[in-house]
Amino acid sequence: MPFKLQVLFSLFLTTHLAISQNSALLQKKEYSATKLTSAPMIDGVPTDNVWEKIPVASEFVMIEPGDGTPSRTTHPTEVKIAYTDDAIYVAAYMFDNNPEEIRREFAQRDNIPVSDYFVLDINTYNDGENQTRFIVTAAGTIADAKMKGENEDYAYNVVWDAQVSLDDKGWYAEIKIPYAALRFPEKEEQLWSLQLGRHINHLNETYVWNYINKSIGKSTHYNGLLKGISNIDAPVRLSFYPYISGEVERFEGKTGTSFNAGMDFKYGINDAFTLDATLIPDFGQTAYDEVELNLGPFEQTFGENRAFFTEGTELFTKGNLFYSRRIGDTPLGFNEAQDARLENEKILENPEKTNLLNALKISGRTESGLGIGFFNAITETEKARYYNTVTREVREMVTSPFSNYNIFVLDQQFNQKSSISLINTNVTREGHFRDGNVTGFLFDVFNRESSFNLSGEAKMSRVNTATRNKMGFASALSLERTKGNFRYGISHEFANETYDINDLGVNFVNNYNNFYLNTSYRIFEPQGIFNQYNLRFYGNHQRRYRPNLALGSGIGSSFFGMTRERFAFGGFIEANTKFKDYFEPRQQNSFITYPAFGTAEAWISSDYRKRFAVDSRLGYSEFIDSDRTALNFNFSPRFRFSNRFTLVYSFEFEQENKRQSFVEILSKNVIFGTRDMQSIENSLQGNYNFNTREAVSLSFRNFWSSASFLKNKFSRLGQNGNLSAFPYETSEANDPNANFNIWNLDLSYQWRFAPGSEMILLYRNSIFKLDNQSDLVYLESVDQLFQQPVRQQLSLRIVYYLD
Questions:
Q1: DSSP per-residue string spanning 57-68
Q2: What is the pLDDT, as a whole number, of residue 725?
Q3: N or C, where is the chain less crowded by C-beta within 10 Å?
Q4: 15 class by beta-carbon count within 10 Å (0-12 exposed, 13-18 middle, 19+ buried)
Q5: Cα separation, 571 vs 559, whole angstroms
Q6: Distance CA 173, CA 165 (A)
Q7: Model confidence at 150, in pLDDT bands (50, 70, 90)?
Q8: Which InterPro entries did the record assign (predicted)?
């Protein structure tokens, strides 16, 4: 054959094979589960006779760091799936020619450590969007999550079982998932979607059963199909979680005790919908909030630490209208009550928290893909009590009335990748207090090829008070290319000046009309030294809606990269124009103009597979034609002493100099001062795992912050947003300086003694100090902190699962 023909033939053959391979990858795999008459023993050793004749799901392909590469011949993966009238059973065989390299770090539930692991994703409605993830590590740690697209909610917990074993050929997992842990349509033959995955830690490689094209759409669009499951019935899903708890507290030389008992329960209303309720809730052992010195115009928000408000709430968080900390938050009239003390009166009681009486949520999804969610919570009346030392009379003031919090959601999935949603939140308070109602319409739509995504929302708020009703509106629209290495997007956000969702949600700002754009380039297969990288450029233009004027603009670029050795690094650089801030002055229609500035930040994160690893971050901001600067630095080393014991320390330093900051409103003048502020945070996290069900954990945090206003550097805010010198006199009564120091330490022993059941013994101590001694340096402030009374608590909580 002539040479030119050989070349043409070779090119044709290579192209044909590549196309054939790509077509094979893109075709959805199918697996048919086998019906068993007797269930296997779940002991992690899948050698029972029942597994012998069950078909194998194999031929896994790489998702990280490569794209579709067949699994190594030295590390094949085989999975078998069967079912009975009660549960799904899975046997997974993770072969490894070097079993001594298998990473097996111990951890507690829902914590994925430095370890090999197996992943099982089940979508019982085959809608391309909602699925349940089950993970088991080579050490036997289990994790489960409710998934919405690629967002994982590990607060979601169901009762299931998994055991593992190890020999000279690899490691193995056996899994049992009762039907009570799943929701599925009521029909004779089920059609579920399925994804299987395996992570090999020492190779830094992850494989999946059904190929995932990372360059297009979301990973949940690429599940294979699970067939063969028929004639199964959803069990009566009724489970109880009764608890008892006791606490001893010592503070300022006084000792107090308390005892609580209550119950959570779950009830499967039908095959698709579940009722969750908490009766007489107990939140005494929730993690402490990371409180900071807050001198800004907005409240500080915290993450949710109460399990009932984090588990299975993906429907209720649509549109970002639900901030669960509003329920049981500080009473609306707390500050007013502090200031309402009359002459000769002292405050006997002014509760800082509102007591939650009960809460329930109902959620599920129909066979047609319609998700329905209903949430309701009730809080009781809170009152401040005053005692008159002259008349000896006691009076009361309601700070938070009896209140009802409600959410209703409809979420329709279609085309296995798109959705439209309607959500309503409502807060009704007894008497002449504030009520709030918000309705939102949302959509999230992919085209057929998953190459573009169009999403948006329109939200209407209504606030009723004793004197007025206020209506507000907000919207957002975004168009993004979701295919290929090169991607881009544009978006717009709008809110009028009366938009307010703060009864059950959080919005710090309104009255805006903002525009955003971004473009990026990323890789999906290793190139050179990189396993992956993403280079992004972005910009924004922010405007005020009424009056219609520009606030400021900015552009920036960011980079993320990870090498083949799992060393990650990145950062960003930004340039911003002058900015009109309408919130710092705390006065309607007033603004301060902050100068243009540039900021840059860089970070590194070393390989967590090694015993010693470190994360670090450094950022700096410089303001043009101004003395104002800002610096932040973080250093966080971690050391793994063994597969059972890990310590993580973190040090963070922030310093901001010469910032023009709000002081107070004096008569008709808004007073600003020049402020220096610095903060130091030390924290330590430690875990010793006796096994995957029993551990001792340490959590410590000390945060110090000092704000100093320069003497004779006070100003008056003008109508044009500029400042002019003002002779503001400070005294002990109006000193704006602040010295803030807080210490929290939790030491706990946790034992999961049965599926769904646990015992937690917690020792906690805390110290707090806030004054105006801003001239104190960190060590001096800490020394004074330890002169304050220490609040010490010892509590025991036992939860028992009853099915």
A1: B---EEEESSSS
A2: 94
A3: N
A4: exposed
A5: 6
A6: 7
A7: confident
A8: DUF5916 (IPR045670)
